[in-house]
Amino acid sequence: MKKQLVLAMTLMLAVSTSVAQTLNIGGHRAPFDELNHVWLCSVPQFLFGQDFTAQVSYGDELSDLYIDSVAIANDDPFTFASLEGGKQYAVTVQKGDRQITGAITFTWLPIVELFGTFTNTYSYGDVIVSEPDSAYAEPMMAKVKTRGGATNVGGKHKRNYRIKFINEDSTKRNRRFFGLRNDNCWILDAGQMDFLRVRNRVSTDLWLDMARKPWYSDTVANVRNGSRGQMVEVMLNGEYRGIKKMCEPIVSKQLKLTRYDE
User: Fold this and answer.
1) What is the pLDDT of residue 56?
2) What is the side-by-side order of every strand in the sheet holding 88-95?
3) Is pLDDT at 21 greater than 90 in this prediction?
4) What percent of the chain is modeled with pLDDT above 70?
5) Cβ proximity of 40 and 91 under 8 Å
6) How many CA within 13 A on the CB side of residue 2?
7) d(CA 241, CA 147)
8) 8 Å CB contact between 124 and 164
């Protein structure tokens, strides 16, 4: 119990450090990527291709914020001209005695933030999922481990993860994302062997379109013999880790199977 408490306090410190540098743009969480000095914000796709005027908020630990050389007081509106993928808006901001110089950029993919130190055995961590409509923006407790065979070795820089969401007492906690199933177990697939990063997602979606449902599907609702998922942008401990696929694992719950003893 003492070890879990120390770990929980360490994770809370890591999350609070990240939150201290987070901007809120029009109600959308924009975490800071320490690796590239970029604030990444997820917004709905329909906003791209036009000007986006939004209120910009930040915590007490930040001050003297400038976006494209325009001074922005806390909760001031700012117009991000001609929003498009990859476009950056220059930022300088003061955090204590440190001046941070970087940029804001936007994506219509959800952003998944992981906090913790993870190996091939489960360890405690925190997860924040920011969907374009800001459905989730608070840290969620979880047990996380790396997964995979040939993709989970020292020479591979991009990891797959299995995430099991939990309550404070370590009991299972179901979570629903992207309109998919409500469950405690999710997978982050890095697409390690696929430079396009989308081959697994495309092939699985094609399978769901063409596969024959189990014979009992006419009497049991929502039977699925495949995995659904969503491409997401991933950050680990405040550093950008690229695009991955967050998806449902194929388990008995997908097929609505009941366990029994012979």
Assistant:
1) 96
2) 32-33, 38-42, 98-107, 88-95, 62-67, 70-72
3) no
4) 87
5) no
6) 0
7) 16
8) no
Q: Tokens 């306090």 belong to which residue?
A: 9
203 secondary structure, DSSP code: H
Instruction: Kindly report, residue by residue over 117-142, the tens digit of the pLDDT.
Output: 999 899 999 999 999 987 667 899 99
Give the SS3 label for residue 205: helix
Q: Cβ distance 145 to 187 under 8 Å?
A: no
Tokens of 167: 């309550």
Q: Locate the DSSP E strands across 108-256.
A: 111-115, 123-130, 140-147, 160-165, 175-176, 182-183, 185-189, 229-236, 239-247
Distance (Å, whole) CA 119 – CA 101: 33
Residue type, 57: S
- Do residues 115 and 18 touch, judged by C-beta distance below 8 A? yes
User: How much is the CA Rg of the chain, to the nearest whole Å?
Assistant: 20
Tokens of 115: 């906090």
Asked whether residue 1 carries a pLDDT value surpassing 70, the answer given is no
CA atoms within 13 A on the CB side of 205: 10
In one-letter notation, the amino acid at residue 216 is: Y
Q: Give the containing element (helix H, strand E) for 58.
A: strand 52-58
Q: Report residue 229 as tokens.
A: 């998922």
- Give SS3 for 60: coil
- Give the DSSP H/E element, type plus range, for residue 98: strand 98-107
Q: What is the dihedral of CA 134, 138, 139, 140, to 10 degrees?
A: -80
Cβ burial of 206 (10 Å; 0-12, 13-18, 19+) is exposed
How much is the pTM? 0.87
- Checking DSSP bridges between strand 111-115 and strand 229-236, what pairing results, if any? parallel
